[in-house]
Amino acid sequence: MTQSLVDRIGRAVLIALACLSILLLVGPSLIVIAISFEPRGYIAFPPSGFSMRWYGEVFQNRQLMDAFLTSLRVAGLVMLVCLALGIPAAFAAIRGRFGGKSALNAFLLSPQMMPGMVIGIATLFFGAYFAWRQSDLMLVVSLSVFCLPFVVRIVMARLAALDPGLDEASANLGAGRAQTFFRITLPQLAPSAIAAAAFTFIEAFDNVTVALFTSDVRARPLPVELYYLVQFESTPMIAAISALQIGFSLIVLVILARTIGLDRIGR
């Protein structure tokens, strides 16, 4: 067997595995989107026809719209908190000169190694110890803990690629630390910061494992509302809600790709 034949077989196997992986990742979402257009009052695949009925039902449901607004508000707050904490933390982890940097990095990234359910339960028990009930504030805190590593990792990757000599040159020209950060370092971090904000917003908006334990029962976010709805409903409206969530996340990623380019994240 010649080397060229081996290369062709290897390339074909690699392409087949890549296509299979994409199918396994994208296939379930495509099925959900297809089911959302089912005109009948029960879930069926393939759909028997095409109808926008269930999307109208979603927008007419006051409870779902309130849950959507709650998710938007919480995701926006989580994004701001993570950016406010994550950018300085990443800066300290990369540019700081102090002992224990490795321990700091491990501490900042440790929530990413834990299941969201663990963080949610831990926050719930912590709140119960101090008589802090489930609320939007508890939800923001728990989701911020869960999402902070996304900001830290992306910004750290960008900071590691920046030339520290630019900051030194700015200091030599008379600029202070704050002026150097806001006029030299921060503009170079902008693409990564925007990407981190987008990923954090999507994760906070769609997260159910953390929100299930920490959200207010009277103002549940959309993923938790959908979780409870699926236990009592079996109509394509559930698929319509899921399709809207998929579309919303896709729109955020498309905007991100068109504005800064996904290839520039972390560079």
TrEMBL record:
Protein topology in the membrane: Multi-pass membrane protein
Subcellular localization, as worded in the UniProt entry: Cell inner membrane; Cell membrane
Membrane-spanning parts: 12-37, 74-94, 106-131, 137-160, 181-202, 237-257
Subcellular location, principal: membrane
The entry's keywords: Cell inner membrane, Cell membrane, Membrane, Transmembrane, Transmembrane helix, Transport
Lineage top rank: taxon: Bacteria
Classification via Gene3D superfamilies: MetI-like
Designated name of the protein: ABC transporter permease
Source organism: Paracoccus nototheniae
